[in-house]
Amino acid sequence: MMGKLAGVAALFAGAGSAAAAPISLIDDKDKKMDYKENIADLARNVDVDNKIRNGTKAAAEDKDFTIKRVQEGKKRLEGDVKTFVDKQFW
Predict the structure, then answer these.
(1) pTM of the model
(2) Which residues, other chains included, contact 57 with Cβ-Cβ below 8 Å and sequence gap of 6+?
(3) What is the pLDDT along the chain (90 residues), one digit of tens a residue?
């Protein structure tokens, strides 16, 4: 019981000396967003459909796009990743 009381007393003693830092909020709503070139701006736009913001719409609508991405991934797995594993880069 005494240990718990000592812990509570230490908590209150430390709370008095704690310093709070101010938080500065930045409002970027007036900033012109570049949805074509800046992927971060596109991700922040809540008016855009979630599939577009996540980047899954292009893969779902364009079969050639998906095939190219799979081929690129396979090439990277067989080339770069295998090289790093062989060199034991982990």
Answers:
(1) 0.37
(2) 49, 51
(3) 556 666 666 666 655 566 788 888 776 666 777 767 777 777 777 777 877 777 777 777 888 888 998 999 999 988 888 888 888 876
